[in-house]
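step=predict obj=DUF4825 domain-containing protein n=182
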Amino acid sequence: MAARNKVIAALAMVGVLLLVYIQGVLLPNKLERERRYEQEQQSPQTHDVNTILPYKSQYMGDASNLTNLYAHLPLNGVKRTFQLYPDDLTLEINYLEKAADVGEEQVNSALLYNSIAAFALIDNLQTIRYRFPDAIYQLSRGDVQQLLHVDLAAELLEQQTWKNEVQGRIEEWTKESSRFWQ
C-alpha cells in the first residue's frame, strides 16, 4: 500500500510539473507567436498572402467577399465603409480616421499593397478609391500593371513570386507612389 501511495504521489507531482510547464512556458510562447503573427499582418513586407487567397473572385460585385478580403489586409484595424460602383467597376473605401493619424508612409505602402492584392484577386475590378477625411488616394488596374513584371492574375499569387515581385519591391514603390495619389 505504501508503494502504491508513492506512485500516486509521484504521478501527481509529474502532473503538477507538466501543468506548470504548459501554463508557464508553452501557452505564453504560443500567445507571443500569435501576437507577432498578427503584427506581421499589418505590414506589407511581412503579410502572409495565403490568408487572402480564399477571396479570389471574378466579380467585384460580391460585397461580402471584398469586405472579408480587406479584413485580412494591412490597415484592417482602421474603421471603414465600402461603396461599390459596378457600372465603373470601382471600389471606394471610406476610412473614418485621418491618414495623417495613421501615418503617411504606413498608409501609402498599405494602400499600394492592398490595391495590388485586390486587383490580383478580383478579376473585373478596375479602380480603387481610398477616402480619408484628410486625403483621397486612387489607383487603377493599369497603374498597378505598370509596376509589375508579371501577370496580375496568374503567377503573381504564387507565394514566392508574391514575395519577390510585391513584398520585395513595396518600399521602392512607396517612395514613388505619390504619382498615383490625387
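step=describe
Helices lie at 2-40, 63-71, 99-102, 104-121, 141-147, 159-167, 170-176.
step=end
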